[in-house]
TrEMBL record:
InterPro entries: Iontro_rcpt_C (IPR001320), Solute-binding_3/MltF_N (IPR001638), TAT_signal (IPR006311)
Protein name in UniProt: Amino acid ABC transporter
Alphabetized PROSITE patterns for the sequence: TAT
Keywords: Signal
Main location: periplasm
Coiled coil: none
Assigned GO CC terms: membrane; periplasmic space
Organism per entry: Sinorhizobium alkalisoli
Localization annotation: Periplasm
Amino acid sequence: MTIRRQVLAGIAAALALPFAFSAPAVASDLPDLGGRTVVVATENAYPPLQFVDPQSGKAVGWEYDAMNEIAKRLNFKVEYQNVSWDAMIQAVSDGQYQIGMTGITIKDDRKEKVDFSDPYMRSQQFMLVRSDEARFNDAKSFATVEDALIGAQPGTSPFYTAVYEILDGNEQNPRIKLFETFGATVQALKAGDVDLVLTDSVAAQGYVDASEGKLKVVGEPLGTEDFGFIFPKGSDLVAPVNAAIKALKEDGTFEALNKKWFLDYKMGG
């Protein structure tokens, strides 16, 4: 199987989250939030979930389409705010924003600070490298190349996967170079400043397609993650959003978004 087919197959399988099928929910079955305004924080740095389209200059992506549809069905108005990843979870926990979305992995330690929605997507991590990389082709061989470096954002799932599944379990390992945004790690990879970036399957093919042949994916998936929206602890939005997520799964809306953003859409630039 080619790398492209492997990634797309991984996306298709990973996105098929298990849930009980029943009669499709309709808008009248869902809570009505009365037109209230909900401030949603996002990073706009994780294509194709959310990013700034290089052609239009507009913030777009799977999560925007999903959140806009959730808002429509629950009758609330969305106000988006751009927030850096390293500040997002704490800012939502503090109540500065009512929802956070940026491909956030559901993790027990994060649940101590914020509430999560039910999973809206499942993803796996892949190894993104330069297209001319020949020193390694999987996690085990990467670990043996002592001068090969990984780019990662601190505190993210790719960071912990790099530490505990590829390297030696030392979070201070100098082979991990830290960056403020995921996009910066990819730029560092292209520039030759690092040699590997771990990216979820939802973003891997987008970056490969946009790289003009400069990037490729190697190796097998390195883990499975469930993504969820985050809320301040005790938020009254969790139950309505969960109801909407369930309805969007059951009536095929999420399936249509998956096809739009992971199979049909080609990133420009």
